[in-house]
Amino acid sequence: MSDPREDAVYFAKLHEQSDRYDDMTTRMKEIAQMNVELTIEERNLISAAYKNVIGTLRASWRILTSIEQKEEMKGNARHLEIVREYKENVENKIETLCNEIIGLLNDNLIPSQHSTDAKIFFLKMKGDYCRYLTEFFYGEKRRGAAENSLAAYQEATDIAQSDLPPANPLRLGLALNFSVFYFEILEAAERAQMVAKHAFDAAAPVIDTLSEESMKDAMLIMQLLRDNIALWSSSAGPSQEEKTTES
């Protein structure tokens, strides 16, 4: 007799290998709604599924934002109308996808996890997807999404700093994305640099205590932290041309 969970995982892997990430999110949504503790493999699959879909949409949104600015400068009203209509369509898709995964995180994934790593993993994920909404929300909607993102990142950080060693790749990746949130969303450059630098400085002396695989992951994230610190030190604020890096 087939196991629905095993089948869903296998289908998700097939979708990933064939670059069918929309189908992959559907399969991983089935697993999320089982309200079970996910394995590391399942956590990575659900992250990869949604990250690939949202990544493409966010890249499209950035391109359309750049085109919109150029059309404004040209003064072509009809072209500007077309671009804005298409950009709004992309924003609606981003909002729908973000709300879907945030709903799964709130209702299924976060409450069902018992391990420290899993809780941090999914709280970080919630912070990320709330942050993506703030990139194009305005007014009260933006404020609400930013508050939800901040709360999720902060809760994950409190657990990570208490229960994970400084060089742990999950803790470092969380610090990386939290610092990006401070810089790009709250426009708090000093706070962003402080979060990134603290994570880097705490991890550097103990990175050689990690396994070879974990050390490789940690060193990659530390390089991203270093790159962002350098960029933010010489930047007046976030811009479309100089995008910070995240995990």
TrEMBL record:
Q: Which UniProt keywords apply?
A: Coiled coil
Pfam families recorded: 14-3-3
Chain segments annotated as transmembrane:
none
According to UniProt, where does the site described as Interaction with phosphoserine on interacting protein lie? R58, R131
UniProt feature coiled coil, ranges: 80-107
Which family, according to the similarity comment?
Answer: Belongs to the 14-3-3 family.
Tell me the SMART domains matching this sequence. 14_3_3
Report if keyword Coiled coil is assigned. yes
User: What is this protein's name?
Assistant: Putative 14-3-3 protein epsilon
What superkingdom does the record give?
Eukaryota
Could you tell me which residue ranges the 14-3-3 domain spans? Answer: 5-246
Q: InterPro entries under this entry? A: 14-3-3, 14-3-3_dom_sf, 14-3-3_domain
Q: Which PANTHER family match?
A: 14-3-3 PROTEIN
